[in-house]
From TrEMBL, chain A:
Species in which this protein is naturally found: Streptomyces aurantiogriseus
PANTHER family from the UniProt entry: 1,2-PHENYLACETYL-COA EPOXIDASE, SUBUNIT A, PHENYLACETIC ACID DEGRADATION PROTEIN PAA
Pfam families: PaaA_PaaC (PF05138)
Domain of life: Bacteria
GO cellular component: cytosol
InterPro entries: Aromatic_CoA_ox/epox, Ferritin-like, Ferritin-like_SF, PaaA, PaaA_PaaC
NCBIfam families: PA_CoA_Oxy1 (TIGR02156)
Gene that produces this protein: paaA
Region (Disordered): 1-31
An example molecular function term from Gene Ontology annotations: phenylacetyl-CoA 1,2-epoxidase activity
Chain coiled-coil ranges: none
Protein name according to UniProt: Phenylacetate-CoA oxygenase subunit PaaA
A Gene Ontology BP annotation from the UniProt entry: phenylacetate catabolic process
From TrEMBL, chain B:
Name this protein carries in UniProt: Phenylacetate-CoA oxygenase subunit PaaB
InterPro entries: PaaB, PaaB_sf
Record organism: Streptomyces aurantiogriseus
Family matches, as Pfam families: PaaB
C-alpha cells in the first residue's frame, strides 16, 4: 500500500464497503450529516474522515496553489542573494528563501493527506494545470524590491493566512500555524530593509519609494477578485475553509499599511487613499482587474520565466533524486543480506 | 525517476529534554538517514528540537474513524475513574 495508514483517506474504504449495496445512500447521508455537524461545531476535519468530494477538491486546489506559490516565490527573492549589500542581509535573505521552501513542503504534505501525490501536484504546476499566486509573476528590479516583498507581499500573505490557522481542515490549519509563526520574521526584515533605505541617501530613498509604488497594487490583488465576482468564496466560507471575504481582508490590509507607510516615510501610490470617519476604514482607489486577469492568464512580465526555471530546476535535480534512491536501494539490499557490517568495516 | 519512489515518513520532534516526542509533520525521503537530515532542515530550523524520530508512514496502524464511537465507548461511562467522582468531607487534607 502506497499511502500511509495514518493518512489513508476514508473515502476509498467506504466506497469499497458500500458500493452496490442498498444502504449506500443512507450511509452517505449519515456521513454528510456527521460532516456538517463537525463543521458547524467548529471541529476539525481530519484526513481519514468522510468529506464531500467537492470539499476535498476545493482543498486540493487551494492548498496546491498555496504550496506552488511558496516555491515559485523563492525565485524573485533568490535573484538578489548574490547581490545583497552586506553579509547580514545576505544571511537573512538566504534564511527567508529557505523558509519559503519549507513552507512549500508543509503545504505539499497537507495536500497529500487528501490523496493527491506529490508528483501529481508538481506535474500540474509544471504543465500549468494548477496555478500559483500571480504576485510572483512580477520582477524584482532593485534591491528595494526585496524589502517591498517582505513588507507588502508577505504582509498581505499574513493577513490572508492568519484566519487559515482556524481552517476546518486539520492538516491545512496546522501547516498554517507553523507558517504564520515564521512569516512574521519575513515581514519585519522587509520593513527594516525599507526603513534603512528610506532613511539613507536620496537615491536610496527614491529606490525604496519606487519599489513600494510597483508592489502596492499587485499586493492588493493578492486577496483575489471582489466578493461579488469570487467564484469559490461563498462555499468556502460555508465550509469554514475561509473565515473572511476577500474584500474584508483587503480592507484590513490597507488599514494596517497606511500608518506603517507613514512610519517608513514613504507614500502609497493611490491618490484616492484617505481615512473615512464614517466607515472607520480607509477608502482606496479602484483596482485594475484587467491587469490581474492578464497576469492570471499568463501574460504577466515573468510568467514564462518562472515556470521555465521551475521545470529546469526539477529536471536538473533528477540525477540527485536517482542517486539518492539508488543509494537507499543498495543499502537496503545490503542490510537484507546481513552485509551492512562488512561494508561499514 | 521522481518522488513516487521515495516513501513518506512521519516526523516526531522532542522540543526539549524531559518532554516526549510530538508529531511535527511528514516528508518524503529515500531512506531513514535522509529522512532524519531532511527533518532537521524542515522542522528544526529555529531550535525547535533536541531529538528527532522518523517513522515510515506505512508502519503506523491507525484506528478507523468509522469506528470512532464504539471503539472509545468503554471509557465514556466510567466516571469513577476520575478523582472528581468521589465526595470527600470538607476539611480532609492531602487527598
Amino acid at each position: 500500500m502506497a499511502t500511509a495508514a495514518a493518512h489513508q483517506p476514508a473515502r476509498t474504504q467506504q466506497h469499497g464497503a458500500h458500493d452496490g449495496t442498498a444502504g449506500a445512500t443512507g450511509t452517505e447521508d449519515a456521513h454528510q450529516r456527521a460532516f456538517d455537524a463537525a463543521v458547524a461545531a467548529d471541529e476539525r476535519i481530519e484526513p481519514r474522515d468522510w468529506m464531500p468530494d467537492a470539499y476535498r477538491a476545493t482543498l486540493v486546489r487551494q492548498i496546491a496553489q498555496h504550496a506552488h506559490s511558496e516555491i515559485i516565490g523563492m525565485q524573485p527573492e533568490a535573484n538578489w542573494i548574490t547581490r545583497a549589500p552586506s553579509l547580514r542581509r545576505k544571511a537573512i535573505l538566504m534564511a527567508k528563501v529557505q523558509d519559503e521552501a519549507g513552507h512549500g513542503l508543509y503545504l505539499y504534505s497537507a495536500a497529500e493527506t487528501l490523496g493527491t501525490g506529490r508528483d501529481e501536484l508538481l506535474d500540474k504546476l509544471h504543465t500549468g494545470r494548477q496555478k500559483y499566486s500571480s504576485i510572483f509573476n512580477y520582477p524584482t528590479l532593485t534591491w528595494a524590491d526585496v524589502g517591498a516583498i517582505g513588507w507588502l507581499v508577505d504582509g498581505a500573505a499574513i493577513t490572508n493566512q492568519v484566519p487559515l490557522c482556524r481552517c476546518s481542515y486539520g492538516p491545512y490549519a496546522r501547516a498554517m500555524i507553523r507558517i504564520c509563526k515564521e512569516e512574521s520574521f519575513h515581514q519585519r526584515q522587509g520593513y527594516e530593509l525599507l526603513l534603512a533605505l528610506s532613511r539613507g541617501t536620496p537615491e536610496q530613498h527614491a529606490m525604496a519609494q519606487d519599489a513600494v509604488d510597483r508592489w502596492w497594487w499587485p499586493s492588493l490583488m493578492m486577496f483575489g477578485p471582489p466578493d461579488d465576482e469570487s467564484a469559490h468564496s461563498a462555499q468556502s466560507m460555508d465550509w469554514k475553509i475561509k473565515r473572511h471575504s476577500n474584500d474584508e481582508l483587503r480592507q484590513r490590509f490597507v488599514d494596517i499599511c497606511v500608518p506603517q507607510a507613514e512610519s517608513l516615510g514613504l507614500t502609497l501610490p493611490d491618490p484616492d487613499l484617505r481615512w473615512n470617519e464614517e466607515r472607520g476604514h480607509h477608502d482606496f482607489g479602484p483596482i485594475d482587474w484587467t491587469e490581474f486577469k492578464e497576469v492570471l492568464k499568463g501574460n504577466g512580465p515573468c510568467n514564462e520565466q518562472r515556470i521555465t526555471q521551475r521545470r529546469r530546476a526539477h529536471d536538473e535535480g533528477a540525477w540527485v533524486r536517482e542517486a539518492a534512491a539508488a543509494y537507499a536501494a543498495k543499502h537496503s539490499t545490503a542490510a537484507g543480506h546481513g552485509e551492512t557490517g562488512v561494508e561499514q568495516a | 525517476m521522481t518522488n513516487t519512489d521515495w516513501p513518506l515518513w512521519e516526523v516526531f520532534v522532542r522540543s526539549r529534554r524531559g518532554l516526549s516526542h510530538t508529531h511535527a509533520g511528514s516528508l518524503h525521503a529515500p531512506d531513514a538517514e535522509f529522512a532524519l537530515r531532511n527533518a532537521r532542515d524542515l522542522y528544526t530550523r529555529r531550535g525547535e528540537g533536541v531529538s528527532i524520530w522518523v517513522v515510515p508512514s506505512t508502519a503506523i496502524t491507525a484506528s478507523s474513524p468509522d469506528e470512532k464511537d464504539p471503539f472509545f465507548e468503554p471509557a465514556a461511562d466510567k466516571p469513577y475513574r476520575h478523582p472528581t467522582f468521589y465526595e470527600i468531607p470538607e476539611g480532609v487534607k492531602h487527598l
